[in-house]
Structures are given as structure tokens and as C-alpha cells.
Specification:
This is N-acetylmuramic acid 6-phosphate etherase. InterPro entries: Etherase_MurQ, Glucokinase_regulatory_CS, MURQ/GCKR, SIS_dom, SIS_dom_sf. The chain is an alpha/beta fold. It folds into two domains: 209 residues, Rossmann fold, CATH 3.40.50.10490; 62 residues, Helicase, Ruva Protein, domain 3, CATH 1.10.8. Helix content is 51%, strand content 9%. It has a five-stranded parallel sheet with strand order 2-1-3-4-5, sandwiched between helices. The longest helix has 20 residues.
Length: 292
């Protein structure tokens, strides 16, 4: 039995506790989850660099998960395109039971040994890709089978798990093990385990995007200004990064089309075409494009 499925004696009878004590205990477990995620620091740093190397070759981030873990993986994949303008076809989440399992549990789907390998094959998995398996117990057959298939083709395999003794800790090339231990409600891994997984997914994908040049001076310079709020944020970002008046930033953004092009145009006094060429020559990395 995984440690996440144990029933801690400390919380026996918690349903009889005063509500304030109950709430305090629930919050305490969430803080413990973050502390457990922090314990993965060396492996997290290694994972960020390893992922960035594969993605620079044109690879994809492909997530595998079931239940809560799968839903958290889907969320991470879904947020990369609007946050960083990362191509949606390069952030793919495969959930046990298919897309419908995102909203309604598909019982038994996590036990499949064929679904994940078949889905990866359909994607044309290659050694440039990164496959991230997310599983609290680290034993989920769907995830294990998918990671094994990924290793066979030479893709980078990562595991985000919550049990040190889990098979996935040994089977993945890099394992991020947030040892969250027993849950306040035995087996309810949407609690501590899920929180730690969300923390690690956030940190991993954001760290990778930073390494790839999608962030400049702490700003989301690849952000898509798709609504009024984001358009205002984009204009403010261009003005702040170039010390230009808001009106000039707005005009440059309208002409350049993207935050990075507008910043290069205003900073170096270039036309849109020249700014785009400069960015292309540096692989889209704004800091390099602004040098010299």
C-alpha cells in the first residue's frame, strides 16, 4: 500500500473536531505539501535543463496521468499557450480514459496497459520529445506503460510522484519525488499529493519556458494579448521595458504585432522587418536580440 493511502492516527475522528481546528489541519497539510515539493530541488533543476535541451530541438511536452494527477497535467498543458504562446501541438496531455475523463471519472481507465503506448504512437513520439508521467502512487499502469514506451524510442522521461518506493521513481530518467506521506483523508490524493504535483508542474514548465527565452526581465514577453486586460498589460510591458511613453508603446505593439518585436523596434529604432529578422537570428531570445 502506498503511503498516500494510509490512515494517519492523528486525524482519527477529525469529523468531530471544531470547524476552526478542522480548517487549521487542512491548511497545515497544504503547507506540508509545498515543503515536500521543495525537497525535489536538485532533481527539479536537472529536469528543467534536460527538458529545455529537448525542446530546443523541436520536441514536445507530453503529459500522462489519470484522475486528479491527469487533470493537473491537462491544466499545465492548457496554460502554456496563452501564457507563453507555446504552440498547443507541442503541449499535449494524455489522460487515462480520454478527454471525457477530465470532467467525469472513467473507472478502471488507469489500469490500461495499452492506451498510453497507443496514444503516444499515434502522436509519432520521437527522441526529441519529453514525456512527463504524473501519478501520486507512482504505480498507475497507464502512466508506467506510457513511460516505458517513451523510453523505448529515446524520449526524455520524467515522473512526478509522491511515494519514494514507487516503481516510477526507478523507471523514469528523472524522478521528482515529493514525499507527501499519508493524506488527512486516507487515499484522497487531491489534497497533499495533488498540491505538491501542481507546485512541481508549475515550476517545471515555467522554468523550462524561462530557459527557452520566453521570459525577459521577469515579464511574459510571449504572452498573447487576446483581451482588453491583456492588451493593456502588453502595452504597459513594452513601455516599461523600453522606457517609452505609453502612446509610443501602443503604436509599436500595433505595428509589430508582438511584445518582443515591439520592444526591439523601440529599443533599437528598427523597422518591424528588421526587428523580426534580429529576433529570428537569436532564436527568439529577446535579451540576445537587444545586445550590440
Amino acid at each position: 500500500m502506498s503511503s498516500t493511502e494510509e490512515a494517519p492516527a492523528r486525524f482519527a475522528g477529525i469529523e468531530t473536531w471544531p470547524t476552526r481546528d478542522l480548517a487549521a489541519a487542512l491548511l497545515e497539510t497544504q503547507l506540508a505539501a509545498v515543503a515536500a515539493a521543495a525537497g525535489t530541488l536538485p532533481m527539479l533543476a536537472r529536469a528543467i535543463d534536460a527538458c529545455a535541451l529537448r525542446l530546443e530541438r523541436g520536441g514536445r511536452l507530453i503529459y500522462l496521468g489519470a484522475g486528479t494527477s491527469g487533470r493537473l497535467a491537462v491544466l499545465d498543458a492548457a496554460e502554456l499557450p496563452p501564457t507563453f504562446d507555446w504552440p498547443s501541438d507541442r503541449a499535449v496531455a494524455l489522460m487515462a480514459g480520454g478527454p471525457g475523463a477530465l470532467l467525469k471519472a472513467v473507472e478502471g481507465a488507469e489500469d490500461s496497459l495499452t492506451e498510453a503506448p497507443a496514444a503516444l504512437a499515434a502522436l509519432g513520439l520521437s527522441e526529441a520529445d519529453v514525456v512527463i508521467g504524473v501519478a501520486a502512487s507512482g504505480r498507475t499502469p497507464f502512466v508506467r506503460a506510457g513511460l516505458r514506451a517513451a523510453r523505448e524510442v529515446g524520449a526524455l522521461t520524467l515522473a512526478i510522484i509522491n511515494a519514494p518506493e514507487a516503481p516510477l521513481a526507478r523507471e523514469a530518467e528523472i524522478a521528482l519525488v515529493a514525499d507527501t506521506g499519508a493524506e488527512i483523508i486516507a487515499g484522497s490524493t487531491r489534497m497533499k499529493a495533488g498540491t505538491a504535483q501542481k507546485v512541481l508542474l508549475n515550476c517545471l514548465s515555467t522554468g523550462v519556458m524561462i530557459r527557452l527565452g520566453y521570459v525577459h526581465r521577469g515579464r511574459m514577453v510571449e504572452m498573447r494579448p487576446t483581451n482588453a486586460k491583456l492588451k493593456a498589460r502588453a502595452v504597459a510591458m513594452v513601455a516599461d521595458l523600453t522606457d517609452a511613453p505609453v502612446e509610443a508603446a501602443e503604436a509599436a505593439l500595433a505595428e509589430g504585432g508582438t511584445i518582443k518585436v515591439a520592444v526591439v523596434m523601440l529599443s533599437l529604432g528598427l523597422s518591424r522587418d528588421a526587428a523580426e529578422a534580429r529576433l529570428a537570428a537569436t532564436g527568439g531570445k529577446l535579451a540576445a536580440a537587444l545586445q550590440g
